[in-house]
Amino acid sequence: MPDQSKNENIRSQRRLIIEMIEASMQLAMEKGPHPLTPGCSCIACVNKRKRKLSGPPKPWRYRL
Question: Which has the closest alpha carbon to 47: 59, 60, 61, 37?
Fold first, then answer.
């Protein structure tokens, strides 16, 4: 039975992550386009913060 409780725990964690993403997307739709706002947890501001922290994108090493 330990495997079943472990699987249920993983499912609940995944469900929580999906709910958080959906909530941040809903907030972005409600707010509409806006500049990067401190403390804003909409998906647009989260992505802007992530890009700002990670710096410019690195050149891709592969060619198609």
Answer: 37
